[in-house]
């Protein structure tokens, strides 16, 4: 038993003796000094426990301070040792191996060794109460920097500019996915958040790799530009399913507890998904084949979008009228619908006779005409409102 512990036990005995108790070995036997005065039995353990608790509270900070001092010393020695090891490696590399490599390769080797030292110091200096997740996150960041340096120096020359950017972004997203697995719980609502986050990260990783490397895939399997669009849209649909799937059963929407909202919302989401599925099928099977030309494919997309908007209006218009709410000018929405139909007809029948800038000019002119008509309607309504007799 240490001297401090003996001193504390002695003080405990003296304190209990002053309160009128005799203390046996180990505080297990206690009886009053004055046999004529017997204290209540329930008071004895409370006094002893209170005093022992005070002793423990005094001893614990000393133990923590000693533990911190020992850990601090270990951290300092580890940091000094790691820097000495890095300097030794640097000297050996420069003396024996550096002449066989170029300047950028030598810089990469030195930086990688320094990053490894930083990773070791991060593991050493991150407090124990932060846990292994914090250390793993720090190491994952260092690993990404190491990969980036090695890729740029040793492998980037064999790829194009956009391909290298895609690889860098994809590697960063993979590190992000690892940290999502580390920090987001896998059960309960947090488990759904983990699945949704991984689905979004996975889709972005696919996109940044597919866009620059699609031409390489075309060598193995012919992929025309329209099929590229179909693949991107299909991957987006798959991502939506993965992101929404964990929350589908828990989604409940109501407005003033009025029935009919949830089915319409589900119908709107389903209609949008079906429209995207139609675009994917059209782009993959029909868009790249005659007799459909580029402008006619644009017309098909516009016409299908107009049909989708018409279905959505048919779903929501009766509900909004029943509530006495909704857009104040339904004719403006109808005007926009007519504009989309006009554009669809233009691109299907007439756009091939004009150049791309001319077709874009037609698009702008029709947009300005529709905006002017809508603005005139709003201005006329405002003037009619001002001309009303507001006097009592």
Helix content: over 70%
What distance lies between the first and last C-alpha atoms, to the nearest angstrom?
99 Å
Question: How is the largest sheet built, in terms of strand order?
Answer: 1-2
Per DSSP E runs of 2 or more residues, the count of β-strands stands at: 2
Shape: flat
Mean pLDDT: 78
Structural class: mainly alpha
Largest sheet: 2 strands, antiparallel
Quaternary state of the chains: single chain
SSE order, one letter for each helix or strand: HEEHHHHHHHHHH
The number of helices is: 11
Strand percentage lies at under 5%
Low-confidence stretches: 21-36, 42-46
Radius of gyration: 37 Å
In short:
The protein has 392 residues and is mainly α. It contains 11 helices and 2 strands, in the order αββαααααααααα. The protein has a two-stranded antiparallel ribbon.
Primary descriptors:
392 residues; mainly alpha; two-stranded antiparallel ribbon; 77% helix
What does the secondary structure layout of this molecule look like, with pairings?
Layout: H1 3-18, E1 21-23, E2 30-32, H2 43-96, H3 103-125, H4 131-155, H5 161-183, H6 188-220, H7 225-244, H8 261-285, H9 294-323, H10 330-349, H11 356-386
Antiparallel strand pairs: 1-2
Helix pairs in contact: 1-2, 2-3, 3-4, 4-5, 5-6, 6-7, 7-8, 8-9, 9-10, 10-11
Describe what this molecule looks like in 3D.
The protein has 392 residues and is mainly alpha-helical. It has 11 helices and 2 strands, in the order αββαααααααααα. It has helices at residues 3-18, 43-96, 103-125, 131-155, 161-183, 188-220, 225-244, 261-285, 294-323, 330-349, 356-386, and strands spanning 21-23, 30-32. A two-stranded antiparallel sheet has the order 1-2.
